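We emphasize that the prediction below concerns an isolated chain of 291 residues; any contacts that depend on oligomerization or on bound cofactors are therefore not represented. The input was used exactly as deposited, without trimming of termini.
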Amino acid sequence: MKIIKNFKEQFDYKPTIRNRDKLKKSKDFFVAGMGGSHLSADIIRDIFPELNIQVHSDYGLPHKINKESLLILSSFSGNTEEVLDTCYCALKAKIPLIIVSSGGQLIEIAKNNALPYIELPDSSIPPRMALGYSIKALLKIVNKKIDFEIKDNESLGKEIAKKVKGTIPLIYSSNKNKSIGYIWKINFNENSKNPAFNNVFPELNHNEVEGINEKDFSFILIEDELDHPRVKLRMEIFKKKYKTITLKDNPINLIILSLWTSYYLALENKVDPIGVNKIEELKKELSQWQS
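Result of the prediction step, given as a token string:
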């Protein structure tokens, strides 16, 4: 698939902040976004734990936000209902903000009100497959850089897809890589139309482990050299009890691998990896009931 093959090129993108003179400097960041549009915040928060980034995936304003914070409104389409609601609430409360979008109502609001914004390229691709653009935009706002060696991983993705076919994938990691596990989950959901869930060590050892089996589930473990030694031990014990697919790589390569795996699982499942009909149907139904 061309979108996935070109995914790594998104990290060559150099975002520009328009109306930069209106951008408030802050050390407290709130990212308002739904679905694929808040994933960049999750990833950057995990890579740079020293940053104070909170994700808001709801209507209204985050509870602890104030006029010293910076609200980052993230919606790839620019028309996400919840993010638009947060935007209107922020404008009313005079909360400093910046908009990150490829177009839609949010970019119109930014231009009409001379607000700082980043206009993302290529609005034709699904938000979950534009994550590279979103990561680069957010890195620009929080003034951070990443430098990972990026590889394709298509053949490995195809191999994993065959192994998990006919099962519900469970993606397990440490808390450090919780966002990566979540990205795998949603790509299985949206691309493969397949149930999938993610959880973290050590928490899953205190509950979820009692409800799993190898008949219904497949297990993907994301390991990290920086994981706590006891977490590493828990993973080793888990691997002795269950047949697992073990992965260890940088966050960007793991994201690309999740795209390839979910794409090839979509082919195995004989479904369209791009369309999200149930999500779109709900949006249409909700639009008939404007508050």
